Every structure is written in C-alpha cells, then in structure tokens.
C-alpha cells in the first residue's frame, strides 16, 4: 500500500518503488492518427488497435487541433497533405503546445524536400506511403520507447539534481554521449553511452585528445565546437559532427559502419571560486545526440528521389542533372555529347504473358547488360517502364554513337534466362547530338524519344538519329489532345445516327450512335482522326460518358414525340470498360431519362471483352440484369469462340464490314453464312455492317440475316434527320432506298 512518508532509497540504481513517480505510459498508450483519407484512417486505426493501443482518429488538420486541445497523446501519426489544414501547420502547433509529444509523419509525398522539412520541423520520424504494416508498428514502438526513456530521464533529472550520485546515474543513463574536456581539449569525463554509441570504453578515451574520435573531414568544424569557451545562450548548439567508431567494433552500425552522426551542444566551463573578473577557463562540457537514424532517413529519401528503386539506376531527375552538368562542360570545351533514348520492343507482351515479376527480373538483366556496353563517364538511367536513357559525353563523331548503339543492340539480342524462361528481346534506340540538335535539356531528351519512336515505326531493333521535321506529327498529336480536353466544355461534339434495318420488312429497328467532332478550325473530324489519341490520353472516358448521356437524351426526345420505339447502340471503349464506375455511369444515363433498358445496346469488340475476362463478365452481367443489351461489334475479327461468347449476356452479333464488302468471294460467303447460322442458333440478333450494294442485300436476305446497316440504306444522319426518318412510315423503306 502506498505511504506518503516512506523513506527514499540511497541507492541511485534502485529507487524505492513506493515513491517512484516516474512518468510512464498508461497500460494503453494514447495515439492520435491524422489523415484526410477515410480508408487510410480506418486502416491505421485497426492496425494500431490490434496492438492494444488507445487510438483516436482525426479526419483532417482541424479535427487534429481539437483532439490535441482536449487531451495529451503519447504519439501522433500525421499526414502532410490535407485540404483544410496542412500537416506542417499541425506540426508547428504540436511543437508550440506539446513539445514532448513525438510526431511520426506518414505521407504519400515522396519528395526529399517534404521529408527533410518534416524532420527539421520537429517530426520524430518519417514514413512513406504506402507503408508496410510491420514497419509502421516498429516505428511506433521505437518512438514510444524513446519517449518513455526521455521522460524517465527528465524526471530523474528533476529528482536528483542535488545529488552527485543521482547526477552520475543520470549522466551515465542518458541516451546522449556526455563528456567534459580540459583546457587542452583532452577528455576528463565520458559517460557510459560512449561505449554503445562508438564502441570505446571510458578508459579508452580518458586523457585522449578529442580529435581521436572526429571524422577527418569534420576536424576544422569540430575545432570550434569542442574548444567552445562561450557559456549561456551564446554557446554552440546542435552542430552536426561525425564521430568515428572504434575500428574493433563487431556489431554492425548505421551509415557506413565507421562513423556516427551527432548533434553537438557545447559550453565553456569556468572556475566557480574565482571572482567575476578573474574567471579562469578550465575546459568545456558537451552533449552529443545521436542523429544517425535521422541522417540515414534523409539519405534514403534523397536516394529514392534521384534513383530508380528497381534497378538502382539514376532516374529522370538525376539524369537531367547529369545532362545539365555535361552540357556546361561540353560548351566550355567545345565538344559534343549524345543523348540516347532506349525502349525494349514488345516488353508489354512479356509482362502480360509471364507476369510483372519476370518483367522486373528482365529489366534488371537489361540494366546490367547496358552497363557493360558503356564507357566510364557515361550515364545510364531508367526513365520508367521499359524506357532507359544514356548520356554519352565527350564524343569525337556520330560514329562513336553508332558504334556504341551497335554494341547495345547486339548484346541485348542474346537470350536472357529468367527463372527457367528463355527470353529474346530487342531494343529501339533514338539519338540526338548536342550542340548540333540543340542545347536545351528537356528538348534533347524529347528529341531522342521522338527519334526512338521513329526507330520503332521503321521496324524496331535499330538506331535512329533525330532529324528536323520528326516532331511535326507529335506536335500535331499533342495539339489534338489539348483540343480534345477543351472540346467537351465547348460543346464541339455531336452524335450522328446510322439506321439498322430489318432485312425483310424494311423497318428501322434501331440506330448506331456515331461520334463526330466539329473542330472550330478543321471542321468535321471522323473518329479515326481523334479516337486513338483520346484512348491513349484517357480523355475517352469523359467523352464516352457524354455519348451515353446524349444518346439517352435523344431516345427520351423520340419517346416524348410518340415515335416508334427503337433501340440505340453505343460503342464502348477499352478505357470506359476498365473504369471502376463504368456500370454506374451507364445506369445513370438510363435512369435520368427513365428509359427502358432494352432500348440501349452497348457495342463491345471481342478483343476488348477478353482483356480482363472475369472482371468484364461481372460488369456486363450487372448491366444485363438491369435490362441493358450487349452487342459484339466487329464479330469475326477476334476470338469468335462459343465458349467465351456463352459466358457473356450477349443479345446481338454485328458481322464486321470487311466480310460483307467481299461477299462475292466464295470463302467470305461461307464464313458469313456460318456466322449468321451461329447467331440464329444462339437466338441472337444478327446485324451485318457495311452493306452497300443490292447483291450484298440479296445474299444476306437469302442467309436470313436479321438486320443490315450501311450506306445502301443510309449514311449516318443528324439527330434531326433521324427524327424525320422515324416520323415516316418505316415499311417500304427498302423499296424507297432502291
């Protein structure tokens, strides 16, 4: 039972347990988690709660300040990028209000500046997202342990400041290296921490000059700190110095294993018995705080900011730095240099067929082979994916570039053996030479990339030098992409409608919605002129959503006008189908106008269906359950497999126009006849595309093809003309068209 007047033990190493009020953590340390992402916040809460921590969450910086104002926390896990109040502002608030509360920054900002600012702003640690759960828990445990030791250390200082025994205990138990020097700079006292920090015993250092443990490169700076004569506020504080470890240490150490980074605070000591005007300098007192882990974290962040983490090669940022330096040197020495852009041919096929693990191993092997082909002083970098870059300084002629590139192509043509797989690869190389092709860093890199694309277009596995005029098609593509991004906002797109007609009755059964772009300078553009750019850039997703909304609005207008009910087919792109909210975007377009799902038909190619078979089957199954129809577009050009087709809720087969346009050929006639028979056997609606002649019509009628679409009946028409067509009596349309 606790007694207030219980005696205190005289043994500094064993204080009386009943009087010990050392501030320690409660049974469940309190942790505040701050992040503006709900999923991340909940994930971290569950992870920490499983360790039996008392976890409080704050969804943003403002909530964090409120929580900190209400209670004290043992550790704060803080995100940097938050919309309401940044992590840096929260960090400053914590430093001002709760200076002893450690903050671990958990941020997705991978830049070196963000990490260094956080650490210098008072953060105890820095963890990058995405984090490994075990690593995060280890960092939290270590931080709690350090805080407990610091609080115990501070409490002991308060209780034992009057006792020499307690003072010795405090000094020797400190997590910092504490020492005193005489006026000649020789150690007169070192605490026990020196042994675990540097591997020296107290006896090794007493009487030795401080320079014994100073890293050679820091001797000049150390002279001013270790010989500090100033006292009070003017004394040296938090000066970074590297201390050498005992060469005989056996345990592995951080950094390079031979030194430790410390922050040194030193003050001069004077004879207390002398008068104010006769104070005699007797030496200096210093405290060295180990910051090796922090420095290692900074170095790691710096390395990751400038290197590719898979291959260890310089990344684009470091490559640009090297290029800038070499350009300056080449300009002074009036020499030339070359920039190479290298891209592996058909690397995506290897990744898709063998998996990304094999792909990564292949990239490592390629990086090793490329190093063997280069000279000392050349720079090899990985810019991303399967794209590498090479900087060749101090060239005598373009022949040097050709010689190196021939060697690269030859070396990479040899098979690579990765985990039992024999892989053959080739490489396409683009090159530009400075100053002949320019002296701007980004322009040289871009020109080499364009030359590389030209090498691929000309057959791959070759070298192509940059030539004036190569950039024109790429500039045009960039302009189209920029115009595409503005086209939706400017209402430049329009839908045309091509009828799908019953082969027997001539009635219009439906329309296919076809996208056209009314470009303000180029006029009407067909899909072939801009859809590939939209697909590659991702702009096709919002464009596809607009097509769905516009087509649904047109259907609603025809319904309000009392026109015959027809179905409307809309083409779906790969990017749309892969979008996470694809199903929801289709359902929104239908529900906004209260349409019957049977009136909307989505046209998807066979090859697109097979790209992610299981995921696509689930998405299309959900749409089919709500009544939406599905058509296989360009049938016959892809898999054409009963096995695959039976897995999807298909309603319509659209025979590709390439078969229809050559129906006079006997083999094509047999193929189309088989397709129609297959579709009818599967109870599917069959539509022939590209019908342009009476003979094609007669053949398809004989095959009992359900519907036809093509210029024989009508070119794609505007919404106004399509409305007028539906307003007329649809019977006899075949005769009228004839």
TrEMBL record:
Catalytic activity: 3',3'-c-di-GMP + H2O = 5'-phosphoguanylyl(3'->5')guanosine + H(+)
Every PAS domain range: 163-233
Region (Disordered): 1-23
Location of 4-aspartylphosphate modifications: 79
CDD domains xrefs: EAL (cd01948), GGDEF (cd01949), PAS (cd00130)
SMART domains to which the protein is assigned, alphabetical: EAL, GGDEF, PAS, REC
InterPro entries hit by this protein: Biofilm_reg_signaling, CheY-like_superfamily, EAL_dom, EAL_sf, GGDEF_dom, Nucleotide_cyclase, PAS, PAS-assoc_C
Keyword Phosphoprotein set for record: yes
Domain GGDEF: 335-468
Keyword field: Phosphoprotein
Domain PAC: 237-303
Domain spans labelled EAL: 477-730
A Pfam family assignment: GGDEF
Keyword Phosphoprotein found: yes
GO MF annotation list: cyclic-guanylate-specific phosphodiesterase activity
Response regulatory domain span: 30-144
GO biological process: cellular response to nitric oxide; phosphorelay signal transduction system; regulation of DNA-templated transcription
Annotated protein name in UniProt: Putative diguanylate cyclase/phosphodiesterase (GGDEF & EAL domains) with PAS/PAC sensor(S) and Response Regulator Receiver modulation
Organism of provenance: Thiobacillus denitrificans (strain ATCC 25259 / T1)
């Amino acid at each position: 039972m606790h007694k207030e007047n219980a005696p205190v033990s005289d043994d500094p190493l064993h204080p009386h347990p009943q009087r010990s009020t050392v501030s320690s953590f409660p049974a469940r340390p309190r942790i505040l988690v701050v992040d503006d992402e709900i999923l991340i916040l909940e994930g971290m809460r569950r992870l920490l709660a499983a360790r039996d921590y008392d976890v409080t969450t704050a969804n943003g910086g403002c909530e964090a300040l409120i929580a900190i104002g209400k209670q004290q926390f043992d550790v704060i896990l803080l995100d940097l990028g938050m919309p309401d109040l940044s992590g840096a502002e929260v960090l400053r608030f914590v430093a001002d209000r709760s200076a002893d509360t450690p903050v671990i920054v958990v941020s997705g900002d991978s830049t070196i500046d963000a990490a260094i600012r956080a650490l210098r702003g008072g953060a105890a640690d820095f963890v990058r997202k995405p984090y490994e759960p075990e690593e995060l828990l280890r960092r939290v445990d270590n931080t709690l342990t350090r805080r407990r030791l610091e609080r115990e250390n501070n409490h002991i200082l308060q209780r034992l400041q009057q006792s020499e025994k307690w003072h010795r205990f405090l000094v020797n138990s400190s997590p910092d290296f504490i020492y005193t020097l005489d006026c000649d700079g020789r150690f007169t006292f070192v605490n026990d921490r020196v042994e675990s920090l540097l591997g020296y015993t107290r006896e090794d250092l007493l009487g030795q000059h401080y320079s014994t443990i100073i890293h050679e490169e820091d001797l000049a700076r150390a002279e001013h700190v270790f010989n500090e004569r100033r006292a009070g506020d003017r004394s040296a504080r938090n000066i970074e110095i590297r201390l050498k470890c005992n060469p005989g240490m056996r345990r592995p150490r951080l950094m390079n294993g031979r030194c430790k980074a410390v922050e040194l605070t030193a003050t001069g000591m004077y004879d207390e018995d002398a008068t104010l005007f006769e104070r005699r300098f007797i030496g200096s007192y210093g405290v060295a705080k180990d910051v090796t882990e922090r420095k290692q974290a900074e170095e790691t962040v710096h390395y990751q900011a400038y290197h590719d983490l898979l291959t260890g090669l310089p990344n684009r940022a470091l490559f640009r730095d090297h290029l800038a330096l070499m350009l300056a040197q080449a300009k002074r020495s009036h020499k030339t240099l070359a920039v190479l852009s290298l891209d592996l041919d058909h690397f995506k096929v290897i990744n898709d067929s063998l998996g990304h693990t094999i792909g990564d191993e292949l990239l490592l092997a390629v990086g090793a082979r490329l190093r063997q082909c280069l000279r000392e002083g050349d720079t090899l970098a990985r810019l991303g994916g399967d794209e590498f870059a090479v900087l060749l300084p101090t060239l005598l002629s373009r022949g040097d570039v050709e010689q190196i590139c021939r060697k690269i192509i030859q070396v990479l043509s040899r098979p690579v053996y990765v985990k039992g797989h024999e892989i053959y690869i080739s490489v396409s190389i683009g090159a530009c030479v400075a100053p002949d092709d320019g002296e701007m860093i980004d322009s040289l890199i871009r020109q080499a990339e364009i030359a590389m694309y030209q090498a691929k277009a000309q057959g791959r596995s070759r070298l192509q030098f940059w030539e004036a005029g190569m950039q024109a098609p790429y500039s045009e593509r960039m302009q189209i992409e920029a115009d595409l991004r503005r086209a939706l906002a400017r209402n430049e797109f329009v839908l045309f409608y091509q009828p799908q007609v019953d082969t027997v009755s001539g009635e219009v059964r439906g329309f296919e919605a076809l996208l056209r772009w009314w470009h303000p300078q180029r006029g009407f553009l067909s899909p072939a002129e801009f859809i590939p750019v939209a697909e590659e850039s991702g702009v096709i997703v919002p464009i596809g959503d607009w097509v769905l909304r516009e087509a649904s609005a047109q259907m609603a207008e025809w319904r309000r006008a009392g026109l015959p009910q027809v179905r409307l087919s809309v083409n779906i792109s790969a990017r749309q189908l892969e979008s996470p909210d694809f199903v929801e975007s289709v359902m929104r377009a239908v529900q906004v106008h209260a349409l019957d799902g049977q009136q909307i038909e989505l046209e998807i190619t066979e090859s697109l269906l097979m790209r992610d078979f299981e995921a696509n089957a689930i998405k299309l199954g959900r749409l089919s359950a709500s009544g939406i129809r599905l058509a296989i577009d360009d049938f016959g050009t892809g898999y054409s497999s009963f096995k695959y087709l039976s897995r999807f809720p298909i309603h319509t087969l659209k025979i590709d126009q390439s078969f229809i346009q050559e129906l006079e050929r006997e083999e094509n006639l047999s193929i189309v006849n088989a397709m129609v028979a297959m579709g009818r056997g599967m109870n599917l609606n069959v539509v022939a595309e590209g019908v342009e002649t009476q003979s094609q019509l007669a053949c398809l009628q004989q095959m009992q093809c359900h519907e036809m679409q093509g210029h024989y009946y009508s070119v794609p028409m505007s919404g106004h003309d399509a409305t007028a067509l539906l307003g007329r009596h649809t019977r006899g349309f075949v005769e009228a068209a004839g």
